[in-house]
Design brief:
Order of helices and strands: HHEHHEEHHHHHH
Number of strands: 3
Largest sheet: 3 strands, antiparallel
Strand order of the largest sheet: 1-3-2
Helix content: over 70%
Number of helices: 10
CATH architecture of the largest domain: Up-down Bundle
Mean pLDDT: 86
């Protein structure tokens, strides 16, 4: 287990040891790549990690199974959920609509100076990651960028729905073998989306975001079967 990931994902949870905090810690660990799809989570190990009883861990497991992060396999245990390619592509079609709506809503708003600065800062970090061919940093910033647009949009229903359909993509970002051109193409989409939101152009922002997500779906189609269940 990566100690850096453990520290960032589990520090807050360990301080309170509530089932909700534990679930958030495990979820964050999955999102950061600390647990791989299909990996079994050992109840007693996590109980020691969080210094709680196993019943508290079972509560967290129940929550995460309900949210789609984990799956329970009878007589085998609890595993980080794996998705089929078809499932991910179906989610991708839904995500295209929701991400597009999120970008539209953000562009329709009169952004505060803080919101504008935050969006520009995200784009600057994406540009820097691309310039250094830093795929891991680009992937991390990519999720934060999309989450920020959703937060700016300010629609809780869209935000909650997107959290579920983004889930399997945490482990399906640009692989390290992808070329600079692939990252550059993805970031060009981001630059158009960012400029459209900042300029208050809802139609352009939605169209650019939907095209960007469609391109991501094509990435899923090209991935090797080993990534899926």
């Amino acid at each position: 287990m990566d100690s850096k990931i453990t520290e960032t994902a589990f520090a807050t949870a360990s301080a309170t040891a509530s089932a909700e905090a534990i679930a958030d810690g495990i979820k964050d660990h999955i999102q950061r790549g600390g647990y791989a799809p299909g990996q079994r989570l050992i109840e007693i190990d996590l109980a020691e990690q969080f210094a709680v009883g196993r019943g508290r861990i079972r509560e967290a497991f129940k929550t995460l199974v309900g949210e789609g992060y984990l799956e329970f396999i009878k007589n085998r245990g609890v595993y980080v959920r794996r998705f089929s390619r078809a499932e991910i592509l179906d989610m991708g079609r839904v995500r295209e609509v929701l991400e597009g709506l999120s970008a539209r809503l953000a562009a329709e708003k009169e952004l505060s100076p803080e919101e504008r600065d935050l969006l520009v800062a995200h784009q600057d970090r994406l540009n820097e990651a691309e310039a250094h061919n830093d795929v891991d940093r680009y992937n991390t910033e990519n999720f934060q960028y999309h989450a920020t647009i959703c937060t700016i949009a300010g629609n809780s229903h869209v935000e909650q729905s997107l959290a579920r359909v983004r889930l399997p993509l945490y482990r399906l970002q640009l692989p390290r073998s992808f070329s600079n051109d692939s990252m550059a193409s993805s970031n060009r989409d981001h630059q158009v989306i960012t400029s459209s939101i900042l300029a208050g152009k809802p139609d352009a922002a939605e169209a650019a975001m939907r095209a960007h997500v469609r391109a991501g779906n094509q990435h899923v189609i090209r991935l090797a079967e080993v990534h899926f269940r």
